[in-house]
Specification:
Blueprint: H1 4-29, E1 34-37, E2 46-47, E3 53-58, H2 73-80, E4 85-90, E5 97-100, E6 123-126, H3 127-140, E7 142-148, E8 153-154, E9 157-158, H4 161-172, E10 177-181, H5 188-192, H6 198-214, E11 222-227, H7 235-248, E12 254-259, E13 262-263, H8 269-272, H9 275-291, E14 300-305, E15 308-309, H10 323-335, E16 338-344, H11 362-373, E17 374-379, E18 382-384, E19 389-396, E20 407-413, E21 419-424, E22 434-442, E23 452-454, E24 457-458, E25 471-474, E26 478-481, E27 485-492
Length: 500
C-alpha cells in the first residue's frame, strides 16, 4: 500500500504533467480560432482577365508636362512589374482635356471652348505627350484605356471633332487603344454645373462606337459609363447606371463604375481597419449585380477605385494602413466576377502605388506579389474565423508553378493578435502538402509605415525587382500570420482538379 508521502508526491507529479500539457496546448493552439476548408470537388466560381489587377493615372497628372516622365527607365520598370495590366488615363480632368497633334508643349488653348467652371480650366495634350504615353504602354506591356472628353458640346450635342482628330492620329501611328467617354457622368451637375442624361450619354456612346468602327478601331473596347458607387443615400447613382444600360448596353464591352470606401478629408486609421468598412464593398457589389443582372453577359469592371476618394488620405492611403483594404478588394471583386479592377493610382495623389521619387509604396509590393502568385481562376474557400480575418482562394499562377494542383490562398489579419489557421478539406492532405509562404507586415506593427516587411525582411527597390523568396513549409496542416498582417500561401500537391 502506498504511503501518504509517496501518494502526495505522485499526485503532485501528475498535476505538474497536466499543467505542463495545458501550457503546451495553449501555447500552440491558443490562436487556432480559424478552420480553413477547401474541398477537391468544386467548380471554378469565376474567371478574371489577365489584366484583372490594373492601374490608373489621373488625367490631371498629364496637365503638367513635367510631372510625369513616361520615358524614364525606373518609371517603366515599376509599371512593367505589374504587367500584364491596363493603364487607364481618366478622371475629372478628362472633361477638360483637348487633344492637339501639334508637338509644342507650350501651345496655348485659345481654341478651347468657353470654360463653364472657373475652378477647372481646359488644357492641351499634345501629340508628343500622347505618343509618349502609348510608347510607355508598349514598352511595359500595358493596354491603354483612355477617357475621351464628353463635355465638348454645342447646340447639337456632343462635338466629336476633337475625338476624331485624336482617333485618326492614333490609328496613323498604329497605337492600340481602348476607349471611354466621360467620367462619373451622374456627378456632372455637381462638378461642371451641366447635366447629361443617361439617354443622351448612351446616344453619344453609340456615336463614338460608329466613329471607332469607321476609323480602324472596330475591335477596340468601349467601356462605360463610369458612374460612382451605389449608395443608399444617393439612389440617383445606381439609377443613372440602370438607365444608361437600358439605352446603351449594345454599344459597350464592359459596364464600369467607380468605388471608394472613405472620405479622404475625414478618414482615420481605425476606419481603414474596421470590418464594417470592408463590408461596404460587398454590399455595393451585390447591389450592382442585382440591379444590372439582365446585362450579366457584359463584363463588369471597377474602372477607378482606391481606399478613399478626394485624392487619398495623406499618410494613410499610401501607407501600409490601406493595404488590407486593397487586397480584400481584389479578393471580393474576383469572387463577384468583376473581371478588371483599376487601381487609382499608379502615380499621383495620396493613394498612389509609387511616390514622387519613384519609390514603391506598400500597395505596389502587395500588387507585385499578388501578380506573382495568384491565378485567374477563383475557388471557393470556407474560412471559419472571426470578422477580423478574411481569406480568398484562387488557382495558383502558372507563371509561379507548373503544379496544376497548386492553389493560392491569401488573407488579412486585422487584429493585434496572431491568427492561426487549420487547413482542412478533401483537397488538402497535411502529410503531403508543400507550402510557400509570403507574409507582409509592418515593423513594430506600425501601420503608418511606407516600408513593409516580407517574411521579416524590409523590401526595397534598387535598380530592379529583388528576389521575393518564400518561407517553405512542408508536411504541416497549419499556417499562421502575425498581428496586423497580410499573407499569401501557395499550397502544392493538393487534390484540386479544376486548376488543370
Amino acid at each position: 500500500m502506498m504511503s501518504n508521502k509517496r501518494l502526495v508526491t505522485v499526485c503532485v507529479f501528475i498535476t505538474f504533467c497536466n499543467v505542463a500539457a495545458l501550457v503546451l496546448f495553449f501555447k500552440f493552439n491558443a490562436h487556432e480560432r480559424c478552420v480553413v476548408t477547401i474541398n477537391e470537388d468544386q467548380e471554378v466560381s469565376a474567371i478574371v482577365s489577365n489584366e484583372f489587377l490594373s492601374i490608373g493615372i489621373d488625367t490631371s497628372e498629364i496637365e503638367n508636362y513635367r510631372k510625369i516622365d513616361f520615358t524614364k527607365s525606373r518609371f517603366r520598370k515599376l509599371a512593367a512589374a505589374l504587367a500584364p495590366a491596363r493603364l487607364r488615363i481618366g478622371g475629372t480632368m478628362s472633361e477638360r482635356l483637348i487633344f492637339t497633334k501639334e508637338d509644342q508643349p507650350t501651345a496655348t488653348c485659345e481654341a478651347c471652348p468657353k470654360n463653364n467652371s472657373k475652378f477647372l480650366p481646359f488644357f492641351l495634350m499634345t501629340g508628343k505627350k500622347w505618343t509618349e504615353i502609348n510608347e510607355f504602354c508598349k514598352a511595359t506591356k500595358m493596354k491603354l484605356l483612355f477617357s475621351i472628353n464628353v463635355m465638348l458640346r454645342d447646340a447639337a450635342g456632343w462635338n466629336d471633332q476633337n475625338a476624331i482628330e485624336l482617333i485618326q492620329y492614333s490609328k496613323h501611328r498604329k497605337f492600340h487603344v481602348d476607349w471611354q467617354l466621360g467620367n462619373e457622368p451622374n456627378s456632372f451637375r455637381h462638378v461642371f454645373n451641366v447635366s447629361i442624361s443617361p439617354h443622351t450619354l448612351a446616344h453619344d456612346f453609340k456615336h463614338l462606337r460608329q466613329i471607332l468602327n469607321r476609323h480602324g478601331y472596330k475591335h477596340s473596347l468601349l467601356v462605360g459609363p463610369d458612374t460612382t458607387r451605389p449608395q443608399e443615400e444617393r439612389p440617383e447613382c445606381l439609377r443613372y447606371m440602370i438607365d444608361f444600360l437600358s439605352n446603351g448596353s449594345h454599344y459597350i464591352n464592359a459596364r464600369s463604375w467607380h468605388q471608394y470606401y472613405l472620405n479622404s478629408r475625414t478618414a482615420k486609421l481605425e476606419d481603414f481597419w474596421k470590418p464594417e468598412t470592408f463590408d461596404l464593398l460587398k454590399t455595393q457589389l451585390e447591389t450592382m449585380h442585382d440591379h444590372t443582372s439582365k446585362y450579366a453577359n457584359i463584363p463588369m469592371w471597377l474602372s477607378e477605385t482606391s481606399s478613399s476618394y478626394g485624392g487619398g488620405a495623406p499618410g494613410l492611403s499610401n501607407s501600409f494602413a490601406a493595404s488590407p483594404l486593397w487586397l480584400d478588394k481584389l479578393g471580393l471583386a474576383a469572387r463577384y466576377n468583376v473581371t478588371t479592377v483599376i487601381r487609382q493610382s499608379f502615380f499621383g495623389g495620396n493613394y498612389s502605388l509609387i511616390d514622387s521619387n519613384l519609390n514603391p509604396l506598400p500597395d505596389w509590393w502587395v500588387s507585385v506579389i499578388y501578380k506573382k502568385l495568384v491565378g485567374n481562376k477563383v475557388l471557393y474557400v470556407n474560412c471559419q474565423c472571426s470578422r477580423f480575418q478574411r481569406m480568398y482562394a484562387h488557382c495558383a499562377s502558372r507563371k509561379y508553378t507548373n503544379d496544376t494542383t497548386a492553389i493560392t490562398i491569401f488573407a488579412i489579419n486585422l487584429e493585434m493578435a496572431k491568427a492561426k489557421f487549420l487547413l482542412n478539406g478533401t483537397a488538402l492532405h497535411g502529410d503531403n502538402l508543400s507550402i510557400d509562404e509570403y507574409i507582409i507586415s509592418a515593423r513594430s506593427n506600425n501601420r503608418y509605415t511606407k516600408t513593409v516587411l516580407l517574411n521579416g525582411w524590409p523590401l526595397y527597390f534598387e535598380s530592379s525587382l529583388p528576389d521575393l523568396e518564400p518561407n517553405h513549409i512542408k508536411y504541416g496542416n497549419h499556417i499562421s500570420m502575425p498581428p496586423y498582417s497580410i499573407g499569401f500561401w501557395v499550397i502544392k500537391n493538393t487534390s484540386i482538379k479544376v486548376c488543370k
